[in-house]
Design brief:
alpha+beta, two-stranded antiparallel ribbon, elongated, binds iron/sulfur cluster
């Protein structure tokens, strides 16, 4: 599971994060949880990131550093092979959940329409993850 938005590169993040948990407590979506070392990671099974920035604002040592014009992360939704549509089951739950219409369904002859993520549009928010009945979406 990824670090919170605007996290420094991993080595710098590890050096800066004091494991205070302030970001975890600040997230109104309750999607931040502690990893085994008590540092924050995002659990998209709990919901989506709204990029509100409250985690970064709460981070006093600036392990999360929100800078104007800098994207929160490079994460994108990745659809895995256990997607129901690949087994010819009609499902559009991820597309319905995406706030920026980044998942389009291309028709396939004699088969269920297949989801395709636009890397250009996807923000990696994770809104598509929890609604997927097959847990077939990774944000990576
Ligand atoms: S940006 Fe907001 S919603 Fe996203 S992890 Fe930080 S506090 Fe939570
Ligand atoms: S991660 Fe967010 S923006 Fe990307 S496809 Fe899923 S819901 Fe849409
Ligand atoms: S919600 Fe999950 S199972 Fe349904 S089409 Fe999207 S990735 Fe496939």
């Amino acid at each position: 599971m990824p670090r919170p938005p605007w996290a420094l590169a991993e080595a710098a993040f590890l050096a800066a994060c004091t494991r205070c948990g302030d970001c975890i407590g600040a997230c109104p979506q309750h999607i931040l949880v502690a990893d085994k070392d008590l540092r924050p990671i995002v659990d998209f099974s709990r919901g989506e990131c709204t990029f509100c920035g409250q985690c970064a604002e709460a981070c006093r040592p600036r392990a999360l550093e929100k800078t104007e014009g800098v994207p929160p992360w490079q994460l994108k939704a990745r659809i895995q092979s256990n997607c129901l549509a690949k087994s010819n089951v009609v499902c559009r739950a991820c597309g319905d959940a995406c706030p920026v219409q980044a998942i389009r369904f291309s028709p396939k002859v004699m088969s269920a329409a297949q989801p395709e993520v636009s890397n250009a549009l996807c923000t990696g928010c994770g809104a598509c993850c929890a609604p997927c009945p097959a847990q077939a979406i990774r944000i990576a």
